[in-house]
Design goal:
By secondary structure, this protein is of the alpha+beta class. It has 15 helices and 20 strands. It folds into three domains: 112 residues, no CATH class; 75 residues, CRISPR-associated endonuclease Cas1, N-terminal domain (Ribosomal Protein L15, Chain: K, domain 2); 199 residues, CRISPR-associated endonuclease Cas1, C-terminal domain (Four Helix Bundle (Hemerythrin (Met), subunit A)), CATH 1.20.120.920. It has a four-stranded mixed sheet, with helices on one face. It has a four-stranded mixed sheet with strand order 9-13-15-16, with helices on both faces. It has a four-stranded mixed sheet with strand order 12-11-10-14. The radius of gyration is 26 Å and the shape is globular. The mean pLDDT is 89. The chain binds iron/sulfur cluster. The site of iron/sulfur cluster has 10 residues, from helix 3 and helix 4. The site of iron/sulfur cluster (SF4) has 10 residues, from helix 3 and helix 4.
């Protein structure tokens, strides 16, 4: 039985590639590629850089399988042909290996080298190619075009799926062990419970507390391009573990050169204050409400500030006003909130807020690493050992929309009640079972679809975070003239 997919490297050509499907026939290994589209006519010549290729398959598809055949041969597999199948007109075309293939590959590698040294080209404009392109979630062609236009908003085709189809796996509790069995993560506990999750369905593994994970499991997670996030029991992110990535050096360099950045800091603080008003508006309406009017005024003032200390001052004044009104949003009578307290949280609401912010911070770190930026270097929060400053910067405008809103829902629906908290020397904290309930509510919130104000499509909060970080990356690279954090309407 040939494997489902294989990843190969060639040191000779510095080429690497993944073969999704391989057939084995008469001792030979045959790379197999399938396309949804139609094959070209067999009378239509196929050429690339002066090389005459096989008719009946598009030249770009042929270049791909030539690379695959080369990688198989380099790694001592017997391979003399590859197969391409076009579903629309049900056509099979066989591409045979010959001596010219090496020359073609050398030309390809030279071209790749040349292109990699140039500036990244701008995305195509409204091209149908983007609809099926596997890079569209990274490239964001319509979104970048809209952000580059003077209007800053418009209609983007929803080529980016609104939600992720993979999930986060949370493991909490000292008695849990994570191991690997074939292609599944196995989470077992001392009580004998066992749960298996196919690794293909996992986006990240979040370890809350001191659950154990085997070396084999860490290796499998890294090979599959998944991240492990190590957090304290209260959700504070200690760090992450992932496989090697060398593709982000340039963007990190640009980040280091441009941070700290007061202009970006003003935008996130202004957006945060603007979004805080949204929660308060739910209860009291907007017109004639002095707190909301103050918040709108402070949000505008934040954009006029000339230095970081004044910005911190405006943010502090807004936070005081916001949290003074926060108790109005709590509808249960036996839970009180007397202002924000951290390290340690002094009451149940503060414990929940701190826990929710930790979860949100962890999600931003995840998105930042996926985009290739450095999470510890922020534009507003100063550098401090072990602190994910960029994640703390970017989460500012989402605190009220995701974290505060989940806390209110948990309390007001009585999903979390006073019995779910414990008081220790370290302050008030959630009991382990309550954490599980709260994480589920938080994940539901992250999965909620909202209307993107700039691109007129529906997108989950989780996807929204990633789009925002990707657009920040484009801004740092100079591709966009502007970057603005999310403002709820
Ligand atoms: S999504 Fe980007 S990479 Fe893909 S075809 Fe469109 S412009 Fe090119």
């Amino acid at each position: 039985m040939p494997p489902k997919n294989l990843v190969f490297y060639s040191e000779e050509l510095l080429l690497c590639g993944e073969l999704d499907a391989i057939k084995q026939r008469d001792g030979e290994w045959i790379p197999f590629e399938a396309r949804k589209s139609s094959a070209p006519s067999r009378t239509q010549p196929q050429q690339w850089h002066g090389y005459v290729l096989t008719p009946g398959a598009w030249y770009n598809d042929q270049l791909q399988v030539i690379g695959q055949m080369y990688l198989l041969r380099e790694n001592s597999y017997l391979c003399s042909k590859a197969s391409i199948y076009y579903r629309e007109n049900k056509t099979h075309t066989i591409i045979k290996w010959n001596e010219e293939c090496i020359k073609i590959l050398e030309t390809i590698c030279k071209e790749i080298n040349r292109i990699s040294l140039e500036e990244r080209p701008l995305p195509l404009k409204r091209s149908n190619k983007c609809i099926r392109c596997s890079l569209n979630t990274i490239c964001l062609p319509d979104e970048v075009s809209i952000m580059k236009s003077h209007k800053q908003e418009g209609y983007a085709r929803a080529v980016v799926p609104s939600r992720y189809d993979k999930g986060l796996v949370y493991v909490s509790g000292y008695d849990k062990k994570i191991s690997i069995k074939e292609d599944c993560l196995v989470i077992s506990s001392l009580s004998g419970d066992k749960q298996e999750i196919p690794i293909i369905d996992v986006m990240s593994v979040v370890i809350l507390g001191t659950a154990q994970i085997s070396t084999q499991c860490i290796q499998a997670i890294m090979v599959n391009g998944i991240k492990i996030l190590f957090c304290s029991t209260s959700g504070w992110l200690y760090g992450t573990a992932s496989g090697f990535s060398d593709k982000n050096l340039l963007i990190r360099k640009k980040q280091l050169n441009q941070f700290p950045n007061l202009d970006l800091a003003k935008r996130v603080v202004s957006a945060k204050i603007f979004n805080q008003r949204l929660l308060l508006r739910r209860k009291r309406g907007e017109v004639g409400n002095p707190v909301i009017e103050d918040l709108i005024r402070l949000s505008s003032q934040a954009m006029e500030i000339k230095d970081r200390n004044s910005l911190l001052g405006i943010e502090g004044v807004a936070a005081k006003k916001y949290f003074e009104s926060f108790p109005d949003l709590i509808t249960v009578s036996n839970i009180e909130f007397k202002g924000r307290s951290r390290r340690p949280p002094r009451d149940p609401i503060n414990a929940l807020l701190s826990y929710a912010y930790s979860l949100l911070c962890k999600d931003f770190v995840n998105a930042i690493i996926a985009v290739g930026l450095e999470p510890t270097v922020g534009f507003y929060h100063v550098f401090e050992k072990g602190r994910p400053s960029l994640a703390l910067d970017l989460m500012e405008s989402y605190r009220p929309l995701i974290a505060d809103s989940t806390v209110l829902r948990a309390i007001n629906t009585k999903t979390i009640s006073l019995e779910d908290f414990e008081v220790t020397m370290a302050g008030v904290s959630l009991k382990p079972k309550a954490k599980k309930k709260f994480i589920m509510m938080y994940e539901q919130r992250m999965d909620t679809l909202i209307h993107h104000p700039s691109f007129s499509y529906q997108v989950s909060y989780r996807r929204m975070l990633e789009i925002e970080v990707r657009l920040l990356g484009r801004y740092l690279e100079g591709e966009l003239n502007n970057w603005k954090p999310f403002r709820a309407r």
